[in-house]
Here is the input.
Amino acid sequence: MQNFTTAVAGTGFIGPVHVEALTRLGIRVKGILGSSPQKSEKAQLALKLEKAYRSFEEMLEDPDLDSVHIATPNVLHFGMARAALLAGKHVMCEKPLAMTSSETAELLALAREVGLHAGVCYNIRYYPLNWEARKQIQTGSLGEVYSVVGSYVQDWLMYETDYNWRVLSTQGGALRAIADIGTHWMDLVYSITGLEVSAVLADLQTVHPTRKRPKGEVETFSGKTLTEADLEPVAIDTEDAGSVLFRFTNGAKGQLWVSQVTAGRKNCVRYEIAGSQASLAWNSERPNELWIGQRNAPNQTLLKDPGLVNAATAHYINYPGGHNEGFPDSFKQCFRSFYDAMDQNLSLDEVNYPTFAEGHKEVILCEAILQSHREERWISLK
Ligand code: SOE
Here is the structure.
């Protein structure tokens, strides 16, 4: 692979995850940008990078950078991704790609116009056995897909004293649990089955209409303990949990439950796909096992092993069977797919990383889900 150089905007929970995955891949991460010069410097020192950028403009002016990674609060994604593409940098942006579908449509059109690589970090596709589920469906072992059910549940926002920028619609968008984790699940289902959603019916729930906000910022999953004196009340207009029913264009049906207030579920993604020949089920808490359900034979559990999967799956496995790969590895493989596409000069129609087109599709789904919840009816997708 050519020697690519990149930089990361965002020093919270996920920016450093990008830095680590890129470093493991051999991509040079020159520097990092935080929400203040102090945060940039702190992260630069902790991650042992060369440069602490003082502004995004300074980052974009750096001629060494081939690409930028955007891991900032959602409200900043649109402006940053737009500016980066206009500055001639390839972009890998965290999800959701932007706050509205008109913004994501504009980014998609711009990416096509400038002909740069533009990806959205739907990393869960890259757990090897999710790639294997996709291959098994493509090669016909499931037959026709009848239904997809599943959930994405966490507990880090369970108490009214749990607070993070994501709970504010001004920072994260009108939808929270659906946009933050539900879109991971929807992207996963789309990437595995190829099924397109034709309509949604949603019922969302805000368990804490008021939260107690610390008088300072708290990072995602930081688990910081605060006293009452450190807190102030804030009204919440985003959902903590909710369910969505899906109709797919081939007639299949789907069902998703998301929650950020389910005790004990730290970060648990599950799906079960039923087809005319067999079923598949996966759980991110045991990501190296894929359950294969059979009607007329014993069920199987496929363990992640490059010798036991399709060749296309083996490409995304870097360790032998019995040597587990997990969350950080899924970022590594996602970025590997992105930089391979840059290296091989693939056209935007040839790439297999999650594209701006797919990021746009997710935001359209989010808007339909919100409309369905508000109007209490099925919403058709165009
Ligand atoms: C917070 O809910 C979050 O960090 C998501 O934003 C990530 O996408 C997910 O991987 C873990 O949880």
